[in-house]
Write a structure and sequence with these properties.
binds adenosine monophosphate; six-stranded parallel beta sheet; Rossmann fold; 2 domains; Pantoate--beta-alanine Ligase, Chain: A,domain 2
Length: 281
Amino acid sequence: MIRIVSPLHMQSHALEMRRQGLKVGFVPTMGALHQGHMSLVKIARKLCDTVVVSVFVNPIQFGPKEDYSSYPRNQEGDMAICEAEGVDVFFAPTADEMYPRDYSVHVVEDRMSMGLCGAFRPGHFRGVLTVVAKLFNIVQPHVAVFGQKDAQQARLVKRMARDLNFPIEIAVAPTCREADGLAMSSRNAYLSEAERRVAPGLYAALKRVEEAFRRGERSAAILRKVALENLAEVREFRVEYLEIVDDETLESVETVSRPALVAAAVYLGRTRLIDNIVLEP
Ligand code: AMP
């Protein structure tokens, strides 16, 4: 595995790999890597000849009151995990090189980014899409893998690739969970022991929705009520949103007659957890 810091060096290395006829797979991350990230690497490995993992805590996708400065960082550990997984290139640029002082160009999506997390994190997806577009231009992948865990992000990246003609296949990997159902996340490291014990209640509530759906319930209002009642059972949760939307357009639905995304964000203490499931009629 080689480690590259400079975006220019990464780009010339990527172009060289492509010249050699290698199919390049790419997994962008913010580090503090866990098995969820590695499941994306495994998919990239299957689809491609060579795998690039980027680790970059992107300052412009964090709001002023969010956790940019406290976000877990552990580059040595991340490199060891990537090395063990057979990653070929570990790309870890600095914020100064990614965003020179007079940086002024951004990617804005103005429909699907408005709801769900976008409604509570203004500017978040502008930051995400901007850095993903930059990383795509730097890494020049044939395939990029994103996690279903961040469903809105994955849908937006697909939309960006389509609308801005990035010649990149976007693959979406299923959510990796702990044994008790909690979706793996770098932010789980923030949870106290007591919080960690109740955190699986988020996925448990989504599973109750799925059960109601399987029993034939199709009304989004009723399915949403099932979720909220179950979330309310965990007194420590503060629900930010729980929405049922069309899985492709992310527009809210009244009846589940096409695949629908049930997505939620809850606060547990100061930690924000997100999770989702897809209902397939
Ligand atoms: P992050 O480092 O949190 O920005 O995540 C980097 C990529 O890994 C994103 O595409 C995430 O959706 C994906 N990811 C994070 N957690 C998981 C998980 N538990 N299962 C699958 N993919 C994940």
